[in-house]
Amino acid sequence: MRVFILCVLSQHKVINMSTSQQKLSHAVVIGGSMAGLLAARALADYAARVTIIERDTQLGEAQPRKGVPQGHHIHALLKSGEQILNTFFPGFTAALIANGARQIDFAQDAVWFHHGGWKLRYTSGLHLVGQSRPLLESTVTQFLHKYPNITWKTGWAAQEPLTNPQNTRVTGVRIQHDDGTSEDMHAALVVDASGRGSKTPRWLESMGYAAPQETTVKIDLAYASRVYEIPADFHHRWVSLLVNAKAPDHLRGGYIFTNENNRWMVTLAGYSGTSMPDDDASFLEFARSLQVPDVYEAIKNAKPLTDIKVFRYPNEQRRHYEGLNRFPDGLIVIGDAFCSFDPVFGQGMTSSANQARILHKLLARMSPMELGFSQRFHKQVAGFLFVPWMMATSEDFRFPKTQGKMPFYYPIMHAYTAQIFKLSMTDPQVHLAFARVMNLIAPPTLLFSPLIVLKVIRSLLTRRETFAPTIEPRTLSVV
Degrees (nearest 5) of the Cα angle 122, 345, 468? Predict the structure, then answer.
């Protein structure tokens, strides 16, 4: 009898393993922005066919498009996101650089005024790639075109889910073309990567499920951007310039990134309902009003190449799909449709990359046809989201007009991280630790290592001012 039971269990294990490794017949991804593109890449290894449904018809070009209005503004790909992209697409960084992107040392080439002082400049060995959002998406698309099992349906939008009679499994999605034509697309897995305007909460209610609870943090952020030609007489030793807003009184920030074609992307940002500039004079005046004059001095005589584009971001939003006790199989949510961050922190695209990696790893162990796949995926994504959500919202709650339910421990974090920020103006070890956490390649616990805690205590006891007085680089190396 014991031998018989072991044989049955062994056969059951083999069946589960073969099921998880068997290719899906078809997977549909709703949305062709970064979250959707990377979800398609994750699925390509496990599905015979992957179809990306995208409302826009202009895809694959290194130009802003209607469906991604924030493409007119500065975007950052954090180191964690770059590493994942190189795993999904070997040689990705080299391809970006070949397409015009600029590789920089995070501490040497980027000058950053943050929490009242300039960050320390030194050779950190932490290299990032600077490029526009359209160039990043177009490069990802170039790599995806190498996968014969990935196809696009452009000019189409998802309308409603297809389900089994019991509404326990999503079996596809009904889509509609711009001309009004409808079509049913059947799939073993539907991935909602449609962004903040996701229809999944309404779909769930129409199927007899509860919609997820939502956490929102109202920040009333707006930003205005335009591209400049770099002046011929520009000789400053930086590639990127960042001047952050500082709570509670300084609501404005400004950023200059050197993107492809050796041009500056300049973004001015304001919190708590700050009015944004919409003409040449007000754009320069806004830059002049920042805590330090460096952004204004850089662009005052530069030639603008584009009109000013304004984007408004009222609130951060997190939908708690991980908290639902019931959820239909055959459907998962990813990217901004799950969680949307304050864009100033540059976490969005890297978060999407990490979620795609979670999907890829889960697909290696479990088939979407198995019960509970969707809920397991959502719980794993929620586990990842905790850190970037905490990093962004804790800083936003420093502004008095930010609205939302602030966790009780944020004031304690504010006190500790204020010391980290000050120390990172003079101490390369603290700066590099902070940079690694910020780039999501190290856990926040790194900032609580004994050495750094000792430095914080010493700083509190001595109460020395730690502001770095200049943006000129110092000759230090911490690699």
Answer: 35
